[in-house]
Design goal:
Elements: E1 11-12, E2 15-16, H1 18-27, E3 33-38, H2 46-55, E4 69-74
Parallel strand pairs: 3-4
Antiparallel strand pairs: 1-2
Length: 75
């Protein structure tokens, strides 16, 4: 995909990257999420973490609110 790493300076009221807006709008269309990914250094891969961060902002308007989700990690 084309999702730049999250930067709070690119996510203010007057300046939101169009990629952030497109991702948030697309995410709101789904009923649930299943994240299946290999672990990276015993943690969540940076790309997945970035997507979770972008979806969780702005504060109080997370696209993840009320949507069931599950994670499966492999080594």
């Amino acid at each position: 995909g084309n999702l730049p790493f999250y930067n709070q300076d690119d996510d203010s009221e007057n300046n939101v990257l169009p990629e952030y807006t497109a991702f948030r709008n697309k995410t709101k269309q789904f009923d649930a999420f299943l994240f299946v990914t290999p672990e990276y250094n015993r943690s969540v891969p940076a790309v997945l973490s970035n997507a979770l961060d972008i979806g969780s902002r702005p504060y109080g308007a997370s696209v993840w609110n009320g949507i069931p989700a599950a994670c499966a990690f492999t080594r």
